[in-house]
């Protein structure tokens, strides 16, 4: 089972680095489906893996001079996402506490992920026909980043496709530019969320050997994903992204069924 978890982590972070979706949108539902751990532990494992990949990808792009980050837009988005990441973590704790069975919280996450992923797929298919905006206000960027941070942390996905849709629509970004910005945003939101989990003891019960191995797989995925991203165009990234959305929709549909029966 651990070999499967590591393979999923590597694959998720590879395509996450290519498309800018982080990887948690794949790791989280797949680990939920395998039942390798409880929902909260999976959130922590997924978050740390995604954090390692995004940290490598952002730093590597900066050092190599290939970074397309615009500090005027992306930094307020990232700061807002960092604060939103903390709020989303608290929101998940509140929602999970409403149900006697932790599996119910997992079902809620899976249902929301299904809806968001389906909406993202539809938007991506028709995005060329949808008018977009060009937001420049720092306050608006902070607010948008906050909303992204809340969603990603609550769902335990570190970022995911919702980042790309928001960047497409509100900032008229090209696909690969949006992927770079998304990883930067995910880095901030996931860093605060993971730090909060460590401070509050959210790592208790986590298999540290498995965690370390998943982090290594996350970094390796980031290395491979960056190399592939540099060799393909926006259209190819879009096709890969849409294929992943279909796969994630199917996995989340299974998870809703699985948690409902648990």
Automatic annotation (TrEMBL):
<feature type="transmembrane region" description="Helical">
    <location>
        <begin position="33"/>
        <end position="56"/>
    </location>
</feature>
<feature type="transmembrane region" description="Helical">
    <location>
        <begin position="105"/>
        <end position="123"/>
    </location>
</feature>
<feature type="transmembrane region" description="Helical">
    <location>
        <begin position="130"/>
        <end position="148"/>
    </location>
</feature>
<feature type="transmembrane region" description="Helical">
    <location>
        <begin position="240"/>
        <end position="257"/>
    </location>
</feature>
<dbReference type="Pfam" id="PF01925">
    <property type="entry name" value="TauE"/>
</dbReference>
<keyword id="KW-0472">Membrane</keyword>
<feature type="transmembrane region" description="Helical">
    <location>
        <begin position="210"/>
        <end position="228"/>
    </location>
</feature>
<keyword id="KW-1133">Transmembrane helix</keyword>
<comment type="similarity">
    <text>Belongs to the 4-toluene sulfonate uptake permease (TSUP) (TC 2.A.102) family.</text>
</comment>
<dbReference type="InterPro" id="IPR002781">
    <property type="entry name" value="TM_pro_TauE-like"/>
</dbReference>
<dbReference type="InterPro" id="IPR051598">
    <property type="entry name" value="TSUP/Inactive_protease-like"/>
</dbReference>
<keyword id="KW-0812">Transmembrane</keyword>
<protein>
    <recommendedName>
        <fullName>Probable membrane transporter protein</fullName>
    </recommendedName>
</protein>
<keyword id="KW-1003">Cell membrane</keyword>
